[in-house]
Amino acid sequence: MSTALEPQTSPEARPGLGQDAALRRAGDWARRAPLLPALIFLIIVTQLPFLGTLIISFMNWNAYYPDEVGFAGFDNYRRVLTDVTTRDSIITTIVLTASVVLVSLVLGLIIALLLDRAFRGRGIVRTMMITPFLIVPVAAALVWKHALYNPEYGLFNGVLTWIFGENAPQPDWISTMPLTAVVASLVWQWTPFMMLILLAGLQSKPLDVIEAAKIDGCSSWQIFRHMTLPHLRQYLELGALLGSIYIVQNFDAVFTITSGGLGTANLPYTIYQIFYNAHDFGRASAAGVVVVIGTIIIATFALRTVSSLFRQEGAR
Amino acid sequence: MRRLSMRTVLLSLVVLLTTTACAGWGGGVGGGGANSINVLMVNNPQMVDLQRLTAEHFTKATGITVNFTVLPENDVRDKISQEFSSQAGQYDVASLSNFEIPIYARSGWIAPMDPYIAQDPAFDQDDILGPMAESLKGPDGQIYGQPFYGESSFLMYRKDVLDAAGITMPEQPTWQQVADIAARVDGAQPGMAGICLRGQPGWGQVFAPLTTVVNTFGGTWFTADWQAAVNAPEFVEAVQFYVDLVREHGEAGAPQAGFTECLNNMIQGNVAMWYDATSAAGSLEAADSPVRGKIGYAPAPVVKTPSSGWLYAWSWGIQEASEKKDAAWQFVSWASSKEYEQLVGEQIGWSNVPAGKRASTYENPHYLAEAGAFAEQTKRAIETADPRNPGVQPRPALGIQFVGIPEFPDLGTQVSQEVSSAIAGLVTVQEALDRGQELADDVAERYRSRAEGES
Amino acid sequence: MTATLEAPRTAAPPVNPPARNATGTLLTILAWVIGVLFVVPVLWMVLTSLHSEENAATNPPSVFAPLTLEGYANFFGAQTGTSPWPSLLNSLTASVLSTALVLVLAIPAAYALSIRPVRKWTDVLFFFLSTKMLPVVAGLLPVYLIAQSIGMLDNIWLLIILYTSMNLPIAVWMMRSFLAEVPVEVLEAASIDGCTLPRTLRTVVVPMVLPGIAATALICFIFSWNELLFARVLTATVAQTAPVFLTSFVTSQGLFLATVCAASVVVSLPVLIAGFAAQDKLVQGLSLGAIK
C-alpha cells in the first residue's frame, strides 16, 4: 500500500539470546494485548453459534417431529450436495454476486471518474449519487418491486406509456427477467458504495507524476490505462471483496422482490426456506456449513494468490 | 484539516449515549406488566382494525394491556412457527389458521380451549359455523382455536360488463363456462382482461385457488395410501386449464399476482371476473370503492364435485407455554365475540366486520343491509365446504386448499414456484408437475414408512 | 517541448481544472444525467408517499395528483393506533451503542495489526473476514436457542451485541488501513519528544485518522440501522426495530403503497441525514492514502 511501517524494535539487534527470547515474548504479548478484546468478543459471539450450526448439521432434527431427533451422520450433507434446488441456488448465488459486483464496480468507476473533475454542481451530483446506498435495503426492495416494476402502476411502465402512448409495451419486468430485476435493484444500491471507494482512490492518486506524463504528451487514455488504473487496483479489489461478502449474504432483495421464485433463489433464501418452511434444521445447518467452507476456499484463493491487498505488506 | 478536540468528541459521544440510554429502549411499548399480554398477528385489514380498537374498548374494560406485533403474512407465519415450536413464551396469543391449529394441537404447542369455553357461556360457541369449529379441533376432539374471521372462495364478476355482452352467469357455473365467459369479455372495455387468477408463488397464494381447481377436476395431492399424485392426469389437466386460462385471458403480471394485485385490478376495472376469497367482497363493496354495487357473486366453479370453495379461518391460538392463559382467553373471547362485531359495525363500517364465523352475523339486519350483495353467498360457500372430503377420492389428511401436514408449506411453495414459472411461460406445465411429483414423492415416502412402522 | 519542463510543478491543484470545451460540457451533462437517474427512484418514493393510496396505484402513474399526508398519518398511527417512536428509538439505541462498542474494540485491534503488528497479522485479518462468511440465516437458530436459554429474547442488548459482531470485521479492516497510513516518522518524533504511547495515540494519531474513524462509524451505523433479519427473529414487542416496523405495513390484502413509501422515507431519514452530513468524511476517510 504505502510506506511500510517497520516494527519499532527488531530482535536481531539485541544482545543475549535467553534474555532476548523472554523480551521478545513480552513484546509479543504487548502487541497482542490491544487485539485481544476484539478477538475474544468476536470468537465468543460468532464461533459459539457456528459450533451450534455445525452440531445441528449432523443431526436429524425437524421441529414437527421432536420424537425423531437423532444423530444423522453425513446424511444432511449428502442431501444438500445432491439436491437440485440447492445446486441451483449455488449457481444463482454465484451469478447474482458476480453480476452485481462487476456491474456496480464498472458503473462506480465511470461515475467516480466523472466526479473526479470539478464542475458546476459537483457536490449536488455526488449527494444524489450516494442516496441509494442510504435507503434501508428492505424499503428499497419494496419500492423497486411495487413502485417501479409493477406492470400495472409502476413507474417504468408509466414512463413507457408517456413516451409511446396508449399502445406502449408494458412488460412484466419481474416475470420476464427475474434475476436481472433483482440484480438491477442491488446494483442501484451498491454502486454508490463502489463509487465512494474508487473516488477516494482517484483523489489520492499521485498528481505530480500524472502532470509530468501529461506534459510529456501522454494522451488521457494512456494516462488512465497505465497510471490511474494500476493505482486504483487495490481500491477495485477492496470494493470487490467487500461487495462480494455483503452481496453473497443478501437476503432482503430476493425475499421481497421475487419471494425466491422464478429461479432467483440464492443460498441465504434457500437456507431460510429449509429452516422456516420445511423445519428441517439439520439440513439447513448443513447448507450453511457448506456455504462457509465454499466461501473460505474461494476467499483464500482470491486473497492469497490473486489479490495485492495482503502482498505488499508481507514484509512486516 | 479542522482538528476537533478530543474533549469535544468524547463529550458529545457521552451526551448522545446517555440520552439514548435514558430514553428507555422500547419501554414505551409496555414491557410486560402483570396484566399485559403479547399478541402476534398478521396485518390484514381486520386485524389492523382490531389493533386500533383494543386500547379503548378491551383494555379499558378489563385492564389488560395488549401489545401487538403485526407482520405481513409470510413473515408472521415464519415467526409464529419459530415461536411455537420452541415454546419461547414471547407471545401469548397468535393468529394461526385452520391449517396450523390441528398440527400444533397434535404437537402440544397450543392450549385446549374447552375448559375456557365451558366457563364462558356468553361466548356462545354454538353460534360458530359448523365447518369452522370442526376445522379448529385437535386430534383429541377438543377445540384448540377460535376463528377471528373465516372465508371460503367464490367467483366475483362485473355484472355490468357481462350484461353489456349479453351474458348471464349460471347459478352454479362450471370452469368451462367460466373460461368461455372470460374469452368473450376479454377486452370488452379498454385494458380489461377476462379474469384475474392468482399466480404468485406460495402454498397459500397460487395454490389456494389452484388446489380447489385440482380437487374439482378430480385430482389430489396424495391418495389415501400416501401415493403422490401431482403429475396424475387429472392434476395435470386442472393445472393446464388454469395456466392456459390465465395466460390467454388473464391479468397482466399474473406470475406475480396475489390477492392484493387482483383486488387492485378488480377495483381499477382492469379485469371482469375474479375467483378468490369471499373476504375480498368487503373491500369491493366498501364505501369508496369505484366498483361498489357492480359486482355479482357466483359459487366457486365446479367440474366433478358439487362444490369447490375452500375453507380458511384466521383464528386465535393460545401458546401452551404462556403464563397468562386466562388473560389470553379473555382477549380471544372478546375479539371473536358478537359484541366485537357489533363494535366494528358501528365504529368502522358493517362491511369491515370480521365475518364468516358466526351464524348470528348473517341474521344481523345491519350487516345484511351493507353486505347483502355477498352475505348469503359467503355463508353458503362456508357451509358447503367439507375439509374431510373436498374431492372425488378419499384423502389422507384434512384440508381443501391445502394438505394438513407440516411438510405442505415447503412442498406447496416449491411446486408453486414451478407453476408460477409455467404461468410465465418459462417451463411447460408437464415439466413443472413432474418436478412437483418428485418433491411430493419425497414427502409421501416418509409418511408411507411411518405408516408401515406403526402397522 | 523540454522548455516547458521549467514551468513550476509544485503547486499542483487538488483536482483537475474544469475544462471549458465541448468535451467538458458533455461530461458535466453526463454526470448530471447519471446522478438524476440514480436519484429518481428515491424522488418517486417521496412523491408516492405524498399521494393517497388510490392515486399511488394508478396507471399511468399520477405525478400531479393532489398531495396528502395520509401515508404519513397512517405510519404514525392513524390506522393501527400504534406509534412508531418506540421502534425508531430502539433502532437508534441499537445502532449508536453498537457503533460505539465497535469503535472501542476495533481501534485497538487495528492498532495491533498495523502500527505495532502482531506476527501473522494476515491470518488474523483473514479470520475476522471469515466470520462474515456464515450466512446469517444459518446461524440464526443457534443464536435463537442460546438467547432463549439465557432469557435474552426481545432484549435490545442482544441486538447490540450481534450488531457489534456483525460490523467488527469491516471496522477492523477499515481502521487498519487508516492507521497503516500514519507515517512512522510522526510516531518516532512523538516518542523522541517524550510522549508515552497512550498520549501519542490520543494527541497525534487519533486526530490524524479522525476522518477514517468518522467513515468507519458511519458505515457501522448504516449497517446496524438497516439490519432486518436478526431484529425480526429475535425481538418481540419490546425491542422491535424500525425496519421490522416498516415491513408491518406491507399487507397482502389492500392498498399500501403510499403508506409503505411514507414509512420508508421516515425510517431511512436518520441514515440519509447522517450520510449527507458526513459524505465529505466518508470520501476522505475511505481514501487510503490521503493523509500523505
Task: Explain briefly what this protein structure is.
The complex is a heterotrimer of chains A (316), B (455) and C (292). With 316 residues, chain A is mainly α.
Q: If interface size is counted as residues with C-beta under 8 Å from the partner's C-beta, which chains form the largest one? A: A-C, 118 and 119 residues
End-to-end separation of chain B in angstroms reads 82 Å
**Spatial shape of chain B:** globular
Summarize the amount of helix of chain B as a percent range: 40-55%
Mean pLDDT of chain B: 89
Radius of gyration of chain A: 25 Å
Radius of gyration of chain B: 24 Å
Task: Note the overall shape of chain A.
Answer: flat
Record field, number of beta strands of chain A: 2
For the biggest β-sheet of chain A, the strand order reads 1-2
The mean pLDDT of chain A is 82
- Classify the beta-strand content of chain A into a percent band: under 5%
Instruction: Find the structural class of chain A using helix and strand composition.
Output: mainly alpha
**SSE pattern of chain A:** HHEEHHHHHHHHHHHH
What is the fold's blueprint, element by element?
The complex is a heterotrimer of chains A (316), B (455) and C (292).
Chain A (H helix, E strand, L loop, with lengths): L16 H16 L3 H22 L1 E2 L9 E2 L3 H8 L1 H33 L5 H13 L2 H12 L6 H10 L8 H4 L1 H25 L4 H9 L4 H29 L3 H6 L9 H10 L4 H26 L10
Antiparallel strand pairs in A: 1-2
Chain B lengths: L5 H17 L13 E7 L2 H18 L2 E7 L1 H14 L6 E5 L2 H8 L6 H5 L11 H6 L10 E6 L1 E6 H6 L10 H11 L21 H10 L16 H17 L9 H10 L4 E5 L2 H5 L10 E5 L12 E7 L6 H11 L2 H10 L17 H19 L24 H16 L5 H26 L1
Parallel strand pairs in B: 1-2, 1-3
Antiparallel strand pairs in B: 3-8, 4-8, 5-6, 5-7
Chain C lengths: L21 H28 L3 H4 L13 H6 L9 H27 L9 H10 L5 H14 L6 H25 L3 H9 L4 H30 L2 H6 L7 H6 L9 H21 L1 H8 L6
Helix pairs in contact in C: 1-12, 4-7, 4-9, 7-9, 8-9, 9-13
Task: Explain this structure.
Chain A has 316 residues and is mostly helical. Chain A is built from 14 helices and two strands. Chain A is 71% helix and 1% strand. The relative contact order of chain A is 0.13. In chain B, α9 crosses α10 and α16 packs antiparallel against α17. About 3% of the residues of chain B have low confidence. With 455 residues, chain B is an alpha/beta fold. Chain C has 292 residues and is mainly alpha-helical. In chain C, α7 packs across α9 and α8 crosses α9. The interface between A and C is large, with 118 and 119 residues.
